[in-house]
Amino acid sequence: MIKSFVKLISKNNVLEQIRYASQALPQLSSEKYNIKRKTFGTIEPSDVGYFRSILGEERVLTDESDVLPYNIDWIKNCRGQSRVVLKPRSTEEVSTILKYCNDKRLAVCPQGGNTGLVGGSVPVFDEIVISFALMNKIDTLDDLSGALVCEAGCILENLDNYVREHGLIMPLDLGAKGTCHIGGNTSTNAGGLRLLRYGNLHGSVLGIEAVKADGTVIDCLRALKKDNTGYHLKHLFIGSEGTLGLVTKVAIHCPVLPKSVNLGFFGVKNFENVLKLYKSAKSKLGEILSAFEMADFDSIDCTVKNLKLPNPISEYPFYVLVETHGSDEAHDSEKLTRFLASEMETGLIVDGTVASEPAKMQTIWNLRESIAGAGLAGGYVFKYDVSIPLKNYYDLVPILRKRLGDKALKVFGYGHVGDGNIHINVTVPQYTKEVSSLLEPYIFEEVSKVNGSISAEHGIGFRKPMYIHYSKDQSALQLMKDLKQLMDPNGILNPYKVLPDAV
Ligand SMILES: Cc1cc2nc3c(=O)[nH]c(=O)nc-3n(C[C@H](O)[C@H](O)[C@H](O)COP(=O)(O)OP(=O)(O)OC[C@H]3O[C@@H](n4cnc5c(N)ncnc54)[C@H](O)[C@@H]3O)c2cc1C
């Protein structure tokens, strides 16, 4: 089995290389987290026969080595036990599959690019994986309104390349863009690097087509900016992580491709100055500011060392990446260069570089985007993705370093300062319950004390249902449970995810 697992590594895909860097199979999620299988039906040879009758032989995977990658999440923390992967090509096929599964009480796990970081995209037991990989057609693009309509399995980067040819960009960008799907992005309400400028998907997604657990197709695919006709049902599917319905098509608003893009990468001496710099960037760069990201020394050091990537400036306690999107090259680059010069004078920036050439900007973005996977090369990473009021944004990193002492290799923090979203990574040689119990629920308690969110953008998935109450009160959880009951009464859609059993 391991041999065929190794065979699956794509030589050209850096994300995949990082993911499969260590060849050890993760422990089964059910054992690791002591979960009991719910009373769903068990898949029989006659069920496989039925799926083959509607999808054909090739789009029903049952060979153990073919199914294995669909059972393991990107961070190699979770492993499910599915024995069947279905690859529909149309909404009608998704609908037929779900109707059948619902009637037979067979649980399913929808999967996009499988880059999710909370274990939501892989089964826990023998749920049938429904992969959207073959639903990757673009329906329409209106280059006047910016409305793109496409199937859920389109890869984000492919969409971005496509709309760029028409003078537009996708409204979201993230390190996993070469692998993640727009359906997965929508189902997780993915944030990413430019949320500061283009807002989140509850704003950009204009319409959705989704299939309910019983196979009913819900058509909310209008590509209108304004449509106040009754309840805004699309929002139920945005961020519900495949537990209320399967997203089959998305209509999304694409902003205009900026004529001028500039990037600054700065060294900063302490976190207080990172915040001062953010305030100054908002005021001095104003409407052209498109990203304000920060990484601490250990984030960059780990990425440079583990992935052999270049750091364009010297070593500093904190790094800040500032990007601008505008329409006037001379004006925008002068504005950013003036910002750099004035903040070097105030001392907020100790050192820095500004780039507008695509290759140089790509090198800097690559360094920032690779942090998410860099820690994996050292063994195992406990990953946290929290929203915290800016004045407390970095507090948890030194607190955790002290709490863990030599039990952790590194504790580092990086993230989207503009959105109040920090990613805290704790690297260890291997997963242990001892370190896990020092981190959880401690981190979530601390986040809750400052009214933060225990999941800023990655979602709740399989890993966090038991902690959701730190961010949602009883009344909200009860309404979520009622909605789940209404839309998926047999609970077949992505079980063991998002909502805890006892609310
Ligand atoms: C290197 C790296 C960087 C990342 N950076 C960011 C970041 O900056 N911001 C951010 O928000 N996230 C980030 N992520 C997390 C991840 O990429 C996002 O959550 C992404 O939106 C997941 O998309 P996917 O297609 O891979 O979905 P998957 O991982 O396959 O699935 C995610 C969830 O959505 C459900 N799902 C998938 N497709 C559908 C569908 N069609 N219908 C219904 N449910 C579905 C799954 O069941 C699962 O619960 C990053 C991940 C990596 C590996």
What overall geometry do the principal axes of the alpha carbons give?
Answer: globular
Q: Strand tally, please?
A: 16
N-to-C CA distance = 40 Å
Please name the fourth-level CATH homologous superfamily of the largest domain.
Uridine Diphospho-n-acetylenolpyruvylglucosamine Reductase, domain 2
Bound molecules: flavin-adenine dinucleotide
Describe the sheet with the most strands.
Answer: 7 strands, antiparallel
The percent of residues in helical segments reads 25-40%
Strand content: 15-25%
Specify Rg, calculated over alpha carbons: 23 Å
User: What strand order characterises the main sheet?
Assistant: 13-10-12-11-15-16-14
The helix/strand class is alpha+beta
Low-confidence stretches: 1-22
* Top-tier CATH class of the largest domain: Alpha Beta
Total helices: the number is 20
Could you tell me the CATH topology label of the largest domain: Uridine Diphospho-n-acetylenolpyruvylglucosamine Reductase, domain 2
Q: Would you tell me the overall average pLDDT?
A: 94
- Count of spatially separate domains: 4
CATH architecture of the largest domain: 2-Layer Sandwich
Top keywords for this entry?
503 residues; alpha+beta; Uridine Diphospho-n-acetylenolpyruvylglucosamine Reductase, domain 2; Uridine Diphospho-n-acetylenolpyruvylglucosamine Reductase, domain 3; Alpha-Beta Plaits; 4 domains; seven-stranded antiparallel beta sheet; five-stranded antiparallel beta sheet; 19% strand; globular; binds flavin-adenine dinucleotide; FAD binding; FAD-bd_oxidored_4_C; oxidoreductase
Compact description:
Keywords: FAD, Flavoprotein, Oxidoreductase, Peroxisome. This is D-2-hydroxyglutarate dehydrogenase, mitochondrial. The protein has helices at 2-7, 14-19, 29-32, 45-55, 64-71, 91-104, 156-164, 182-188, 195-198, 201-204, 234-237, 271-285, 297-307, 329-346, 358-369, 371-374, 396-404, 433-439, 442-449, 474-487, and strands at 60-61, 85-86, 108-111, 128-131, 138-142, 147-151, 205-211, 217-220, 246-253, 260-268, 289-296, 318-326, 351-355, 380-387, 410-416, 421-428.
